[in-house]
Design a protein that fits this description.
globular; mainly beta; 19 strands; 3-stranded parallel β-sheet; 2 domains
Length: 250
């Protein structure tokens, strides 16, 4: 099952949705050719305002098969959206044969808001997110090796932010985002290791530049709210202005 766009939702949740779906990867009469593939049950849209409820997934336990893929029709760099859109789910069921809940695909940024916690295993109003280092806040946990991403409990929120409107000499650069809460800064400064922390690329979520997506010439990524971040570009060039586009669901 695949939904590509939800432009006709008139700004309302619950108009484009899957309710009570049954999704089976393999059955007794599955063709042998499927053994060489890595299918997916549901591919989510590249826009906001899509919901899934009561969907059950079975028998996704070979190769890289997964219950869900992200961002329909975003398989190339010229796709029409920069990603990090929010999909709302609740009352999902994953049989023990499902080895991966979410397989992230280009541009690897979709946010899942789980109202009941079956996707995240973190309880009500929790979050399933792509693996970026800056998202590993204290309220979150990396489950990439098992379920396919980072999960956060309901005490926080995840939101999309796109930065655009930068000078042309920034185009093509990667943006780097590091956790930088006040407590972390105080600890690092006290130990005189702040520069070591900031110079280690392993501490950053790396955001590639996208020129042909919406918004154009932008850097878009999810953030965990109520935390502070250090954002900079690779060459450290100066700028006079930028534009920040927040999520439609803020």
């Amino acid at each position: 099952m695949e939904m590509s766009r939800t432009d006709d939702n008139a700004g309302k949740d619950g108009m484009a949705q899957i309710i009570g779906g049954l999704v089976i990867g393999k059955s007794e009469n599955t063709e042998e050719a499927l053994d060489r593939r890595s299918p997916v049950g549901v591919r989510t849209p590249r826009t906001e305002l899509f919901t899934m409820s009561g969907v059950k997934f079975y028998n996704y336990n070979w190769n890289s098969a997964a219950a869900m893929h992200t961002c329909s029709h975003c398989w190339h760099d010229n796709n029409t959206d920069s990603g990090a859109r929010t999909i709302t789910v609740w009352d999902l069921y994953f049989d023990t044969t499902v080895q991966q809940y979410v397989s992230y695909t280009t541009p690897w940024r979709t946010i899942f808001f789980d109202k009941t916690g079956e996707l995240t295993t973190k309880g009500v109003n929790s979050w399933f997110l792509p693996k970026y280092q800056h998202l590993l806040q204290p309220e979150c946990e990396d489950l990439d090796s098992t379920l396919g991403g980072i999960v956060c409990d309901g005490t926080v929120e995840a939101r999309r932010i796109a930065i655009t409107g930068m000078p042309a000499n920034f185009f093509g650069m990667r943006m780097k985002v590091a956790k930088f809460d006040t407590a972390l800064e105080t600890e690092k400064l006290a130990d005189e290791t702040i520069q070591t922390y900031l110079k280690d690329e392993a501490n950053y979520g790396i955001v590639p530049y996208k020129d042909k997506q919406l918004p154009t010439n932008s850097w878009t990524i999810p953030y965990i709210t109520n935390h502070r971040y250090r954002v900079h570009w690779e060459s450290g060039l100066d700028f006079k202005e930028m534009k920040i586009e927040i999520s439609d669901r803020w």
